[in-house]
TrEMBL record:
This is DUF3592 domain-containing protein. Keywords: Membrane, Transmembrane, Transmembrane helix. Pfam families: DUF3592. Residues 45-112 form the DUF3592 domain. The chain crosses the membrane at residues 6-27, 126-148.
Amino acid sequence: MAAFQAFFYVVPALMIALAIFALTGIARRAQDLSRAWNSGFTSQGRCLRAYTTTSGGGDTSVRTTLHHVYEFTAHDARVIRFDEANGPATTVEGDIVTVYYLPERPERATAHAPARGRLAAGTGCAAVFLGGVIVFCLVFMVVAHLMFTVV
């Protein structure tokens, strides 16, 4: 019986850990983008390659992600190459783009145009959704505990 009860604590705890992991990744990327846009450091970059990746299939829907590989020269004359997902479909190989970067971390550059409101809205929606998942799991664990102590 104890193994059966542990299931009602372990699974929600793993879901909470996964939600926290996802939330920190989303917040870290949002902070990187915001800091790159606010740094004032820009460079002219070139799109070296555009490609897509797919995930899913079978019983789930297929999701396609557009990636771009960019190269630019940082202010210290280092040539930096980076891969960025979810770029504009209108950017193709050879296009010149503006790259925003932090001088101390040019490998975390972005070619996304500044969109602070969109970034805040996306990050906020993800935080609310993942926060809801965490709260649901916690309530589920409390209710399960109360049910097991009554029996």
